[in-house]
From TrEMBL:
This is TonB-dependent receptor. It comes from the Bacteria. Residues 115-230 form the TonB-dependent receptor plug domain. It is a multi-pass membrane protein. Keywords: Cell outer membrane, Membrane, Receptor, Signal, Transmembrane, Transmembrane beta strand, Transport. Belongs to the TonB-dependent receptor family. GO terms for cellular component: cell outer membrane.
Length: 989
């Protein structure tokens, strides 16, 4: 009986507990526009784990264990609000937005600042504004999004390398690549062993924001690695509140965006006859551009979770990305995992942040250059198949590219882990010590192989090039930060020390002569009949740095930022081991002044001015140290043995392979910037205007010794007085309509004008880009010329075809001869201006966004046309375009000479991406208890491009550099770009 009474008492207790629960419901809207706010975190104060989030219409229902309490409402971009409740109450809650973008937090070097306190030129792009579609890396996310930043894909290959130029090219040999900093870790991508873009290892869906540090004030805190600018990537972090789960899935289909207008079969037959050529007619009508491309299918799956409490937050994700290119055997597969944790303790004085990204990248690449050449030049009358098998009897004894595709492979597997842990402790109020320990470990294995093959007309020997690369990057940093507010004065002082060590090891083996036994060469290395070559290298670089920064503000009106960094690099000689990089910037919040404080029109007006210096240490390791070898050739030995009959019998002598260069100095970029930030009409219209002047000096270059006795053929030195100057103007504008209406829109864009010029060069020309093949190998296409932009095209000026059927060029110096002295500067590969604009529309649950970008004032050298689209090729039954028949009297033997005949306008306007989306309320399909939001979308990428360029695409650079100086604007059988349609589903739980 006692047991029965106990059970009754327990049941009554449970019933009373359930009856004690109350249900609080309501709707959350924005304070200014009175529109529903989805995704708001709602929880009973003191119980964040039992919270809920508002649905798409701003509605919420929460169960409370107490009859009376306080609900907490929080959401990014809005002020947190606490609302009391009593019983089963229905609440109408309005959240006030943060005052404006001035309160937006911007990530800077070794910290963050409110936008209103920033004195440098920083472009910031949040995840909601990234470019949409099939995206492989961070550069694609921000193309066209930041004024003064030109992102150019090297080709249309999935995850292709990029030229990212911030405020003009400012170096000769170190390229244009900026420094990437991910969650406080400075990357080194110089030796990862990945043939495609090394930044492909980061899942774009894991990125929360990207900041571009453009002027020296913003980037000087990174000193010797910031001459090309700095891109700071911040991955997504957790926030307190209920766990949020997000699942996104996309499927994309890519096709060849544009065809080169080569002859059809009938046009080809008429064309060969018109030039009195030899027609090899296979009787077919083949479009080789169709036959050698495909519809690439790309799929992406990403699952993320985030949440936390007041003390502990987390964010985790898993992603799978599989991208197919439009050329066969062209794939990029990425498997990523990310975990970001943050833990507070000891009354929030102790904080630990942990970030981990792990990636496996599998990249398959075709022999794109050969494939594209086949697509454009193969005889269109040749049949692809005969009796269902690849045709083995093609014109000019060419191996059917369907067969060569199956024989060639270039496969890379890269495993990379990027992790850092950052414990910090606030000793006294405002004084915080932080230690940052990070590691970036990358291991790559690359196999480039050709399978053995034999037919009546073609034979290939099996070959294998095996390359193993490891890159180990370790970072140790110690910083002290002190924040002090004393009346109208505010100070933030940062002092720090950093040590970074990078080790790169590589092994390279070349084999030839594999048996044709159905086993791939990479799986039977021991069966090779010949080891052609073997090599290995090991490089170790160290960078020790000391840095400091002062931020001072008076009454929120007058701002001062001063930084200094000292970098010591093992790359430089003992006489100039350290470089020093200072900067200073001033800011004036004019709207804080009394005469504007009450203005209803001008909401923000800030004037900025800065000066600073950054450096470049991108030189090969060990070049400051002498190096020797043994030799018994030429004058390196002398006959001590009278009986010796040839050099092989002479003793070896010791000779230099590299001279010591202890006096090499750092390249220095000195930049001045003046900028104006403004927002008007209740922050509806906002923008920035910047003027910059950037001068690069102490330029490092490898040159030939001028001394008559040359112990080595080349050596490194700083070129005296030589400078690269970039100056220009950047303008960005954004306008947003009233978001409280059913229909709203935003529109904006940016444009930047940059003038680039090389001054005080001691050389007539430093060749950067040279021709290839056809007897033209090494002929100058573009180079560095005094008082001209980098990437200037330097060539003969084509004026037509003479009576003899041969090229005619302008005699520019009037000496009656056509020689190298008649070459002219015929334009530059660098654009005079770059621009972008966007349009976003929203109507109830529908939204549409379109992003355009373009460039103007640049040239492209169509190396494809020079190599293949000529009369001689057509006469020998190779396909061409109508360029080959442009001049009726041109001789078939006319040479392909580098000249303005093949120089074209590179300006373009592109619809980069457009997205149509619909937010489906889970209520409509009865899933409101399970899901918070369902989003359906369709995105088009590269939908059209307006250009005069006759090649596949004007956004290209596949030219070959000569020496170590980067080339620009040369199109040599580039991997063509695709047009992609992407269907997406995103579900929030």
């Amino acid at each position: 009986m006692k047991k029965i009474y106990a059970l009754l008492i327990l049941a009554l207790g449970c019933m009373s507990y359930s009856y004690a629960q109350v249900s609080v419901s309501g709707v959350v809207v924005s304070d200014a526009e009175k529109i529903p706010v989805p995704g708001v975190s709602v929880y009973v104060k003191g119980e964040p784990k039992a919270g809920v989030t508002t649905d798409f219409d701003g509605n919420f229902v929460i169960k409370a264990k107490i009859n009376q309490g306080v609900l907490v409402f929080s959401y990014v971009g809005f002020q947190t609000k606490e609302v009391p409740f009593t019983g089963n109450q229905k609440l109408n809650v309005s959240l006030a937005e943060e005052v404006s973008s001035l309160n937006e937090v911007v990530v800077v070097g070794y910290g963050s600042q409110k936008r209103s306190d920033v004195t440098g030129a920083i472009g910031s792009v949040k995840s909601e504004n990234f470019n949409k579609g099939v995206v492989a890396n961070a550069g694609q996310l921000i193309q066209g999004k930041v004024a003064g930043v030109n992102v150019v894909a090297a080709s249309g290959e999935p995850g292709a390398n990029q030229d990212i130029i911030i405020r003009g090219a400012g170096s000769l040999r170190s390229g244009t690549t900026p420094l990437y900093v991910v969650d406080g870790f400075a990357l080194d991508n110089s030796g990862t062993g990945v043939a495609s873009n090394p930044m492909n290892f980061i899942n774009p869906q894991d990125i929360e924001s990207i900041e571009v540090l453009k002027d020296a004030s913003a980037s000087a805190i990174y000193g010797s690695r910031a001459a090309n600018g700095v891109i700071v990537i911040t991955t997504k972090k957790g926030a307190k509140g209920q766990t949020k789960i997000n699942l996104s899935m996309t499927t994309g289909m890519s096709t060849l965006a544009n065809k080169v207008d080569v002859f059809s079969a009938d046009e080809f037959r008429r064309g060969v006859a018109a030039v009195n050529g030899t027609l090899i007619d296979g009787g077919a009508n083949t479009d080789w551009q169709d036959e050698l491309t495909r519809t690439g299918v790309s799929q992406n799956l990403n699952l993320s979770m985030s949440g936390g409490t007041d003390k502990s937050t987390y964010s985790a994700s898993l992603g799978v990305d599989d991208q197919q290119g439009v050329l066969k055997n062209s794939d990029l597969k990425r498997y990523t995992g990310r975990l970001n944790l943050n833990q507070k303790a000891l009354n929030d004085k102790f904080n630990v942040a942990f970030n981990l990204t792990a990636t496996k990248l599998e990249n398959s690449r075709p022999d794109a250059r050969a494939l594209v050449q086949n697509m454009l030049t193969m005889n269109p009358t040749d049949a692809v198949y005969v009796n269902g098998q690849p045709n083995l009897n093609l014109s000019n004894d060419i191996l059917n590219p369907l067969i060569s595709q199956s024989l060639y492979s270039d496969e890379t597997t890269n495993n990379r882990i990027l992790a850092n842990i950052s414990p910090s402790y606030e000793f006294v109020k405002g004084l915080t010590y932080k230690f940052n320990l990070g590691v970036d470990y990358s291991m790559s294995e690359r196999d480039i192989q050709v399978l053995p093959y034999s037919s009546a007309t073609n034979t290939t020997l099996g070959t294998l090039n095996n390359i193993s690369t490891s890159n180990n990057n370790i970072l140790y940093e110690n910083t002290l930060t002190y924040n002090l507010n004393a009346g109208a004065h505010s100070f933030t002082v940062l002092a720090g020390q950093s040590y970074q060590k990078i080790q790169v090891n590589q092994k390279n083996y070349n084999f030839r002569g594999f048996p044709d036994n159905g086993v791939e060469p990479k799986n039977q290395i021991g069966a090779a009949s010949e080891l052609l070559s073997k090599s290995s290298s090991a490089v170790e670089n160290e960078l020790q740095s000391f840095f400091g920064r002062l931020n001072y503000g008076y009454d929120n009106k007058y701002l001062l930022t001063a930084t200094m960094r000292a970098d010591g690099s093992s790359k430089f000689g003992e006489n100039n081991r350290y470089g020093y990089f200072p900067s200073v910037a001033l800011g004036w919040n004019i709207t804080k002044e009394d005469f504007l404080n009450d203005s209803e029109t001008i909401n923000n007006l800030k004037l900025r001015a800065s000066w600073g210096q950054t450096g470049s240490q991108e030189i090969p390791s060990k070049i400051t140290k002498a190096s020797y070898t043994e030799s018994n050739s030429g004058n390196n030995t002398y006959p001590l043995d009278p009986s010796a009959v040839d050099l092989g019998s002479y003793p070896y002598g010791t000779i230099f392979t590299r001279l010591a260069s202890p006096d090499i100095q750092w390249e220095v970029s000195t930049q001045t910037n003046v900028g104006l930030d403004f927002s008007l009409f209740n922050n509806r219209l906002s923008g920035t205007v910047d003027y910059f002047n950037k001068v690069s000096s102490k330029l490092l270059l490898q040159i030939a010794p001028t001394d008559p006795i040359q112990p080595v053929p080349m050596y490194y030195t700083n070129i005296p007085n030589m400078e690269i100057k970039n100056n220009g103007i950047e303008v960005a504008l954004d306008y947003s309509s009233d978001k409280s209406r059913d229909f709203s829109y935003s529109i904006g864009g940016n444009v930047s004008f940059t003038k680039n010029r090389v001054e005080n060069s001691a050389y007539k020309i430093l060749t950067t880009g040279g021709a290839q093949g056809g007897g033209q190998s090494g002929a100058t296409i573009n180079g560095i010329i005094n008082n001209q932009p980098i990437g200037s095209f330097y060539m003969l000026d084509f004026v037509g075809i003479g009576a003899d059927g041969l090229n005619q060029f302008a005699d520019t110096n009037g000496d009656g001869q056509i020689l190298d002295d008649d070459r002219i500067v015929a334009g530059s590969a660098l654009p005079d201006y770059i621009y972008a604009f966007y349009l976003n529309l929203r109507y109830k649950n529908f939204d549409f966004g379109a992003n355009f970008n373009g460039v103007g004032g640049n040239k492209i050298y169509n190396h494809v046309a020079m190599t293949s689209f000529n009369r001689g090729s057509l006469a020998n039954s190779f396909n061409t375009t109508d360029r080959a028949t442009q001049y009726l009297n041109e001789a078939s033997t006319n040479s392909n000479t580098v000249s303005t005949r093949y120089l074209e306008d590179g300006s373009f306007l592109r619809l980069n991406n457009a997205t149509l989306g619909y937010n489906l309320s889970p209520k409509l399909i009865g899933l409101s208890d399970v899901m918070d939001n369902i989003r359906l979308s369709v995105t088009g990428q590269n939908l059209f491009v307006i250009t005069k360029y006759s090649g596949y695409d004007p956004e290209i650079n596949t030219g070959s550099s000569l020496g170590e100086i980067q080339s620009f604007g040369i199109d040599y059988f580039s991997y063509p770009r695709s047009r992609t349609i992407v269907f997406g589903l995103n579900v929030a739980f």
